[in-house]
């Protein structure tokens, strides 16, 4: 090596940490070997080498080496036995990848360097100082703060994830001291992850102030008596020796014995065949193709390399914990000062679990500082924020609008939040901004509307925001992003690359609490946010958001994105730590765009049909009213619970009456159903009347009011996080609860029609929950019946009652069907007796006989309850968790309810996951098949499409295949999934 050469030193252990913890788990398809860290390492190294060899980029290295930790035992352990004593062993999935990553380094034709007894940082320090002494330049590829003490005019650091160089100025900007004082700063602050003690109560900001005042650590300790703050002075005097010990632990050695000298680190040309052989052995197809193209090699002609999978002890692995856990494509930039308490340090957590805990502890006590919120009113300021978002690769955002209906709302403004204090335009720390775009002046509005002054032009602002919101390399964070996604799509912006904290929380804690931003803020940040009512009022005094004073709107909107970003920082590492990343990324996040597209499309209804049905329902309800009054012996308001209760239990003296907390008789649907089941006519008539009037008010009368004035279609809104099991629900209007077991309910579906030249296609999973039950409980009889295409209810009836399948009476099949579905929902003998209008003892005998014929179902139920009691949750076949914390309740009825729910959740939730997978895949499948079918609705186990007449024949098999294979490749179902599909002019005919 000579003067003018340039040495790149790669922190290999840091690369491993980023690759393993920042990316989803990955296994080799042929044998299930964990290779996620190897894949991430190879991709990062290839990009780094590709950029390094590109002379147009700027810096081109002449020498190159990858440095690893040899083991956790180093000379520092001899100095201080408690050093890194709190470290947990590397994850089991990572251990076999250590050796493969070293093999990867050699396959890249790069020096792979490690030295027993020393950490990678010491080796890097030794090489850096030797190269610098010769007059060469050095770039250390890492973001680890422990290496910042090495930075000089000729030694720089490079954060490859953020594409950011760290020189002397950047160290000073981040830590408040130059690189040569980083050792003393770390000695004062300590490191909880490495178990470096430091001095209690001293954080980075305080340490920087003390070093500026006293020069260095020795000067500070010698003059500690001069410190004015009593507590600080006492701490430093009491822990002076601890600080000196800490300095010995954090100071990097520059005299490590090296097996390879600097000349041996020359960057050699890539050995294409060798690298391709390794990549093919790892089964990394995409990277193999890239390398083959770059090296001009025929990958097909190269055999996979023969590799030995190292079964090394965890101790002989890289020191992962020295790396910066905040780095990586899915990790956060540094949190604001004060986010972990005064003068806290945010780097150094050892694993996702520890990072998650430290983040949760930190943000639970952090103060929300609204004083740094700003209003963006000019293009230059907006450009600064956009540039910062592009540089950091992360921004939180929210769209504020005039309505909660994204199909009709007008955009009032957009709020942004950044967390990297290196780039934040507003002066450091997490800060948020609001961009008012459509606010109006109240006075002007009375005269016909007027835009408030000093706002950016909406077209100009959106034109500038569009590139960053559509940039897949910039992660957008928000809460309930489907609203903003759909609203902005109407303005020509299709948001790409996003994380929704509502869905992250839903994956982590479904069943534990609400997923609203206010609930999450209180739960994780200990902060009660402003309410919309506080800002815009309510009732007659309420105004739309565009009428709210801009400064008031700014505080509300900026706080929302501030909170969303903080919650993201808390929850993101939990997904990795709890192995739920795949559930979030494959079942939840993709549904944002999928459902937004469906909501935007809407569906056509026939108002005339609804009007006619409304009249019919009114006539039938009137007839029921006459009968009800005759049975009651007087006229009364049927819709009044008080008057109805007085009639049933006061005047008529019917049994089973119970009063509510208000002192009124309970007339719930369950109470009326129970009375009707034992033969009381009046309650039965009231139940029927209620059903008719609800259909009329909820659907035939209300649906026309939901027709969009421009599209002339009805656009429902799907709720992604409102059920514990993962089922979707819909509102405004609710299209998932239209009853289909009654003639009137089916007639309502006839009003949902296709447009001219099209048909509606209904694709419905057949008995999917029973099929899932047969899969998870592994019931041989049910599996065989489904495999043979036998009618499952007839088969069950035959098994239980000894009746031949052929010629089976309908009533017998009906009873078996009620039991089949009832068992899934944990039905009791009482409930089954009500359904079948039989004695409770007979219903109990049915259930007992069912379990005798299918013992595996009883085993499944008992095992599921036991698992739920132990863990507090149950899981679907795809790993989704449904929490039931009250399953251990001392209240028998509460406990029993949670047990029934826990039994059902893996079945209903797995079915919900399967249809989600189908929905996410459907758009791509249709596009690939060059079909124009549009998915409009999802109703539990059914998908509704609108298809051109000419494409019906081609579309149906594609829909069926996609839905029936939806579980693959994640799960190979033990029973086949079956989809019934039909095309017709209206929904009822298609179903």
From TrEMBL:
Top-level EC class, please?
A: transferase
Kindly state which keywords UniProt assigns to this record, in alphabetical order: DNA damage, DNA repair, DNA replication, DNA-binding, DNA-directed DNA polymerase, Exonuclease, Hydrolase, Nuclease, Nucleotidyltransferase, Transferase
Q: Which residues form the 5'-3' exonuclease domain?
A: 5-268
Determine the domain of life of the protein's source.
Answer: Bacteria
List GO molecular-function terms, semicolon-separated: 3'-5' exonuclease activity; 5'-3' exonuclease activity; DNA binding; DNA-directed DNA polymerase activity
- Domain (3'-5' exonuclease) spans 373-576
- Tell me which residues make up the DNA-directed DNA polymerase family A palm domain: 745-951
Pfam families xrefs? 5_3_exonuc (PF01367), 5_3_exonuc_N (PF02739), DNA_pol_A (PF00476), DNA_pol_A_exo1 (PF01612)
Q: Where is the composition biased (Low complexity)?
A: 323-338
GO BP terms: namely: DNA-templated DNA replication; double-strand break repair
- Presence of the UniProt keyword Transcription regulation in the record: no
What task does this protein carry out? In addition to polymerase activity, this DNA polymerase exhibits 3'-5' and 5'-3' exonuclease activity.
Q: So what family is this one in?
A: Belongs to the DNA polymerase type-A family.
Subunit organization: Single-chain monomer with multiple functions.
Q: Any idea what this protein is called? A: DNA polymerase I
């Amino acid at each position: 090596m000579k003067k003018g050469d340039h040495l790149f030193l790669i922190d290999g252990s840091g690369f491993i940490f980023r690759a393993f913890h920042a990316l989803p788990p990955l296994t080799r398809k042929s044998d299930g070997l964990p290779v996620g860290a190897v894949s991430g390492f190879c991709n990062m190294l290839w990009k780094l080498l590709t950029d390094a060899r590109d002379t147009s980029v700027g810096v081109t290295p002449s020498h190159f080496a990858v440095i690893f930790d040899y083991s956790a035992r180093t000379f520092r352990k001899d100095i201080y036995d408690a050093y890194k004593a709190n470290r947990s062993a590397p994850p089991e999935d990572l251990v076999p990848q250590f050796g493969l990553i070293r093999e990867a380094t050699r396959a890249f034709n790069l020096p792979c360097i490690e030295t027993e007894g020393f950490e990678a940082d010491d080796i890097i320090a030794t090489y850096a100082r030797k190269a610098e002494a010769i007059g060469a330049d050095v770039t250390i590829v890492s973001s680890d703060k422990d290496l910042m003490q090495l930075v000089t005019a000729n030694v720089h650091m490079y954060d490859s994830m953020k594409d950011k160089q760290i020189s002397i100025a950047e160290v000073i900007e981040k830590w408040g001291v130059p690189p040569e004082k980083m050792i003393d700063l770390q000695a004062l602050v300590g490191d909880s992850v490495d178990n470096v003690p430091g001095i209690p109560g001293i954080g980075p900001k305080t340490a920087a102030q003390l070093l500026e005042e006293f020069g260095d650590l020795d000067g500070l300790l010698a003059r500690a008596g001069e410190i004015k703050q009593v507590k600080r002075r006492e701490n430093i005097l009491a822990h002076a020796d601890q600080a000196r010990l800490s300095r010995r632990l954090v100071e990097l050695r520059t005299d490590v014995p090296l097996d390879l000298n600097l000349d041996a680190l020359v960057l050699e040309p890539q050995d294409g065949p060798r690298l391709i052989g390794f990549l093919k052995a790892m089964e990394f197809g995409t990277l193999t193709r890239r390398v083959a193209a770059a090296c001009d090699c025929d990958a097909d002609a190269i055999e996979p390399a023969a590799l030995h999978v190292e079964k090394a002890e965890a101790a002989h692995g890289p020191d992962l914990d020295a790396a910066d856990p905040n780095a990586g494509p899915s990790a956060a930039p540094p949190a604001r000062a004060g986010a972990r308490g005064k003068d806290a340090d945010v780097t150094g957590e050892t694993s996702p679990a520890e990072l998650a805990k430290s983040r949760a502890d930190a943000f639970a006590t952090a103060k929300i500082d609204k004083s740094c919120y700003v209003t963006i009113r000019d293009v230059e300021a907006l450009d600064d924020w956009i540039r910062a978002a592009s540089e950091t690769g992360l921004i939180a955002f929210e769209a504020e609008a005039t309505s909660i209906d994204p199909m009709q709302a007008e955009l009032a403004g957009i709020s942004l939040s950044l967390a990297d204090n290196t780039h934040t335009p507003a002066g450091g720390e997490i800060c948020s901004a609001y961009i008012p775009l459509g606010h109006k002046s109240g006075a002007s509005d009375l005269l016909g509307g007027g835009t408030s002054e000093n706002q950016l032009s909406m077209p100009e602002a959106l034109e500038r925001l569009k590139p960053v919101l559509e940039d897949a390399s910039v992660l957008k964070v928000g809460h309930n992003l489907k609203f903003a996604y759909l609203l902005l799509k109407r303005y020509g912006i299709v948001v790409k690359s996003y994380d929704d904290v509502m869905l992250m929380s839903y994956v982590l804690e479904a069943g534990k609490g609400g997923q609203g931003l206010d609930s999450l803020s209180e739960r994780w940040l200990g902060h009660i946010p402003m309410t919309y009512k506080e800002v815009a009022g309510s009732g007659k005094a309420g105004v739309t958001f565009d009428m709210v004073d801009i400064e008031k709107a700014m505080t509300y909107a900026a706080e929302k994105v501030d909170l969303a970003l903080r919650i993201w920082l808390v929850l993101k590492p939990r997904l990795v730590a709890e192995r739920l990343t795949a559930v979030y990324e494959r079942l939840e996040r993709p549904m944002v765009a999928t459902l937004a597209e469906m909501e935007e499309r809407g569906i056509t209804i026939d108002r005339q049909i609804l009007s006619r049905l409304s009249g019919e329902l009114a006539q039938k309800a009137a007839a029921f009213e006459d009968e009800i009054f005759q049975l009651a012996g007087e006229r009364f308001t049927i819709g009044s619970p008080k008057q109805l209760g007085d009639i049933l239990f006061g005047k008529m003296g019917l049994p089973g009456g119970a009063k509510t907390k208000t002192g009124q008789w309970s007339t719930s649907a369950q109470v009326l159903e129970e009375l009707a089941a034992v033969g009381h006519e009046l309650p039965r008539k009231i139940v029927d009347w209620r059903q008719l009037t609800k259909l009329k008010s909820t659907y035939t009368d209300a649906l026309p009011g939901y027709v969009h004035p421009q599209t002339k279609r009805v656009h429902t809104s799907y709720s992604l996080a409102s059920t514990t099991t993962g089922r979707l629900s819909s509102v405004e209007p609710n299209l998932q609860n239209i009853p289909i077991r009654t003639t009137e309910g089916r007639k309502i579906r006839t009003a949902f029609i296709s447009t001219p030249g099209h048909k509606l296609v209904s694709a419905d999973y057949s008995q999917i929950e029973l099929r899932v039950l047969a899969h998870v409980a592994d019931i041989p009889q049910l599996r065989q019946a489904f495999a043979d295409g036998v009618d499952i209810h007839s088969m069950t009836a035959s098994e239980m009652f000894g009746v031949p399948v052929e010629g089976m009476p309908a009533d017998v099949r009906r009873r078996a069907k009620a039991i089949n579905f009832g068992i899934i929902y944990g039905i009791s003998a009482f409930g089954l007796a009500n359904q079948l209008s039989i004695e409770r003892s007979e219903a109990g005998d049915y259930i007992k006989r069912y379990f005798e014929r299918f013992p595996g179902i009883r085993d499944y139920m008992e095992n599921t309850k036991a698992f739920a009691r132990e863990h507090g949750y149950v899981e679907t076949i795809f790993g989704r968790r449904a929490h039931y914390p009250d399953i251990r309740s001392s209240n028998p009825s509460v406990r029993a309810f949670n047990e029934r729910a826990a039994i059902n959740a893996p079945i209903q939730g797995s079915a919900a996951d399967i249809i989600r997978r189908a929905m996410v895949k459907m758009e791509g499948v249709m596009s690939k098949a060059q079909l124009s079918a549009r998915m409009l609705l999802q109703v539990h186990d059914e998908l509704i499409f609108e298809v051109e007449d000419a494409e019906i024949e081609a579309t149906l098999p594609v829909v069926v295949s996609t839905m029936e294979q939806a579980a693959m490749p994640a799960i190979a179902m033990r029973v086949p999934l079956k989809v019934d599909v039909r095309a017709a002019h209206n929904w009822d005919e298609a179903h």
